[in-house]
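Tokenised fold entry reproduced for absentees:

. . .
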Amino acid sequence: MFLLLTLLTYTPLLSSSSPSSRFLFLFDFFSLTFSFSFSTYPLKLRERFRTIHIKMGVDYYNVLNVNPSATEDDLKKSYRRLAMKWHPDKNPASNKKEAESNFKQISEAYDVLSDPNKRQIYDQYGEDGLKSSDVPTASETASSQQRNYSSVNNAGFRYYPRDAEDIFAEFFGASEKVFGGGGGGGRFKSAEAGGQTNRKTPVNTKAPAIESKLACTLEELYKGGRRKMKISRVVPDGFGKSKPVEEILKIDITPGWKKGTKITFPEKGNQEPGVTPADLIFVIDEKPHSVYKRDGNDLIVDKKVTLLEALTGITISLTTLDGKNLTIPVLDIVKPGQEIVVPNEGMPISKEHSKRGDLRINFEICFPSRLTLEQKTDLKRVLGGSDIGN
């Protein structure tokens, strides 16, 4: 009769517990029935059932996929992997509800098992015991040989769950930066922590921008084109550990870009916890050209001519930066330091694609180092009547 009454007493508890807990309860019930004498049975059975009752609840070790003997490193490794998998900002909207539930439970499991005091209480009394006030203090535990739990009242410990996002930020930094402000669009809050989480959201400092020169030929800046830059940077893997990755960045060069033009790739620097990745900036630099020099939107050519060519005329042949042949006849007498301008044969203007700068040709006259008497006589004869003022 006593066994029947005992079983009926704990039936409501069994109906709300998991199948494994119900099996354990029934197994212990019948085991204790046959292992203890009738005189000691009621006391020991009640004590055993009290322990089973307290330990019913969430199995935090199972949540983190670790053994009860797991070390601190084991807990961290498992948390990193599971938190990255189930963070709500990483999961699609269709899976958001499940992700939020799993993420909260993973965070709570790590919060409890990573704290020696909480873990000790949980190991001894389970989730229900941890979250209730019906848990002995340290001094009471030491002297609780008689297991008189009905008179225990712990005023020295109260379990308050930490915010799931705060735990996540300790490992990876703010989730908005880790996931680029994705799915959730903001800071995810743990419902259990709700009223008592007045902590400030960690504010990440941004790493200084990284600048690198991008040397381009004048032909590239004239015609435009695409450059592919291979970079290597450090990012966290699925377990939160840093790993080097390589990435190809594509830069479309606009015709007419000038030296000093900057191309920015936001947050393409190394990803480190608590730090917003640096911007990666490429700065255009111009390689020297064998024929042309650049002055703003104009191209400059220095041309040496002989005295004879300066006096009698010359035809200049140039190959433009886009490969065309350009012929420029110079029929007038060229004077020292003279410059002639060929319109619209300079660099493209990046903001006005239909317009170009000018081509400027500067002449340098090469005088002969010496003349024979006969040459001097001929020159005097030819030039002797020239008007110096013209």
Summary: Confidence is low (pLDDT under 50) at residues 35-54, 137-155, 182-187, 189-201. The chain has three domains: 57-196, 206-286, 293-383. Residues 247 and 342 are 44 Å apart (CA to CA).
